Amino acid sequence: MSTIFISPSRYVQGVGEMNNIGTYAETYGKKALCLISNGGYRRQGAQIEESFAKSNAEVVFDYFNGECSRNEINRLVSVVKEARCGVVIGVGGGKIFDTAKAVAHFVSTPVIVCPTIASTDAPCSALSVIYSDAGVFEEYLFLPSNPNLVLMDVGIIAASPVRLTVSGMGDAMATYFEARACYQSGATTCAGGKVGVAALGIAKLCYDTLMSDGVKAKTALEAHAYTASVERIIEANTLLSGIGFESGGLAGAHAIHNGLTVLEECHPMQHGEKVNFGTLTQLVLENIPQDELVDILDWMIAVGLPVTLGELGITDTSREHLMPVAEAACAENDTLRNMPVEVNPEIVYNAILAADAYGRAALGGE
């Protein structure tokens, strides 16, 4: 099997870049569908319209229904065809990006991704995570190419709720451990090949950046300050993690996240918050050394990520309640099979319980 490395065609990160969205869009098409939430339009709509007014392109807005589901994708495919749009733009968070990427794929147009938060590694990938209309994970939709442009306006992202950037750190923290697992097991990555040294190196850089700058960035953001650490974390959450997970592969952390989506009480939690507990569970499955586990737990707690089932809203920890999580995580179409250790629902169930116990102990609960 070959080593494969993929990435977006262009990644732009800087303060005020949303002011240039119209100029960027006109290089891909003369009419753009901009997928955005109602709240996102209230915050950035006028800025986007002003940018397009200065360009040679036209913009049409449509409002996201809340889930990257087959029904929502099909609805928007019809909108793009009827409006005859030549480019699709997703402005907002992860599920909007994934929807925009899927829609652009099905109508064969370029796609521009404009995050207003740094909460996931979705922007850079050739992948859409498909959920049911009720928010339960269904499948990964692998796309033939990465976004044409990822545009990160640091000023907008730095002004977003701190919890969302912290959630992005949780999503990004999984990158190295999942890439390492895939490298060890020889698994096929999301890019369709083996893990190469470039992807593994980027994943490790993502981890190192999180460990060195994560707490500093959170402190700065809480003070409404934009610093070098904030910019490094935005890049780690988005570019390093995006390239790292896609060309490095997914394993236990995201499979556990997908299992957690079967519990309704977890639905209010952010993607990266659930992935973070998935990372902790994966490390239990791998039986990493105690000192490494302590260092990672200390970091997770310091930045404010959940390390227990209770912090995810799960109060019923009975076997009957948690076994469906383990069974869903072990689904044939998921990525737990990429682990370099034996896994089955019984093993995963016990790892979840142990991860919760380690988290509670680190918090001083036991």
Question: Which stretches are poorly predicted, pLDDT < 50 over at least 5 residues?
Answer: none
The rounded distance between the terminal residues' Cα atoms is: 47 Å
Specify the biggest β-sheet.
Answer: 6 strands, parallel
Total helical segments: 13
Estimate the helix proportion, in percent.
Answer: 40-55%
Strand order of the largest sheet: 1-8-5-4-2-3
How many distinct beta strands? Answer: 8
Radius of gyration: 20 Å
The ordered H/E elements are: EHEHEHEHEEEEHHHHHHHHH
Name the overall outline.
Answer: globular
Helix and strand composition category: alpha/beta
Q: How confident overall, as mean pLDDT?
A: 96
In what range is the share of β-strand residues?
A: 5-15%
List keywords for this structure.
366 residues, alpha/beta, 6-stranded parallel beta sheet, two-stranded antiparallel ribbon, 8 strands, globular
Task: Please summarize what this structure is.
The protein contains 13 helices and 8 strands. 53% of the residues lie in helices and 12% in strands.
